[in-house]
Amino acid sequence: MKDLFVGLDLGGTWLKYGVAGADGKLIHKGKKPSHGQDSREVIFGVMEEAIAELRAKTENVGVLRAIGVGSPGIVDYEQGKLVGGAPNLPHWEGADIRGELSKRTGLEVYADNDANVMALAETRLGAGRGARNALFLTLGTGIGGGILIDGELYRGSWFAGAELGHVPIKFDGRKCNCGNFGCIEQYASAPGMVQTYSELCEKAGRTCPEDVTTEHIFAVAGEDAEAAETIRLTAYYLGVALSGFTNVFNPEVIVIGGGVAEAGDAFIRMVEEETKRLAMRESGSRLRVVRAQMGNDAGTVGAILLAAEGYAKHKEGRA
Known about the structure:
Elements: E1 2-10, E2 14-20, E3 26-33, H1 40-57, E4 62-71, E5 74-76, E6 81-84, H2 97-105, E7 108-113, H3 114-124, E8 134-139, E9 143-149, E10 152-153, H4 185-188, H5 190-203, H6 214-220, H7 225-249, E11 253-257, H8 265-278, H9 281-284, E12 288-291, H10 298-318
Parallel strand pairs: 1-4, 4-7, 8-11, 11-12
Antiparallel strand pairs: 1-2, 2-3, 5-6, 8-9, 9-10
């Protein structure tokens, strides 16, 4: 029977889940409300239901070997525990993801930060496929990041590495949720773009439309000078941050995902141009900045790959 692996992509609103072989090709997927505002017991119950569904759907296809979980916050990969920072899941900090799910399912469990597992999907199977050294950013409500060095995820000394959204680009800038000022997240996330647009409209003496979204900003940029300037500034701000990352890590490719990146390839080209312009020539001349390819499945597939790779290493250790 084929070895199969479960991927769970946990968010504050939804739990997305799927099952695949070690190749990451989804056999079945689904999503359920995560009940992220509720207790850990409730969230683990939702996960258990999803795993039971996947087990039933694949009982004639293969054998479930391991579970991978992508979770918001800082995750101790070695212990499979959440050790900090998941504001959309107020009761989740300290959750023993590995211990609890192993007890409930009898399977090996591997857990990591959600941006890390998305980075794994994009660098193994998506836009950064084949790269040994790569950066991944997801631009949405916030900015998440992942770093691949010599083909392996870089997690840092205390699993708090790759917090790429919290690199300051303006030392007298906007107050960030992390407590610092001027973080790139405050300028290149979706709320950051909307704030830039509102400030530019106010400066121009015009009223900003209500309920502005990044989709609106990109859609009207051809005839709205403030929208066009917002996009230019956002590309510049990203270039400032990414050029710094490029000088430090010298990646082959930077993959950008999330809602802001869905604006299209023209915006990504602007970001690439700014990054190369600002980076050291030796670091940035051959750099590619590309749009993510895995879409909404990135977290699920990345969690599957996390489980498959962890299981393979564990199996080698047992041999």
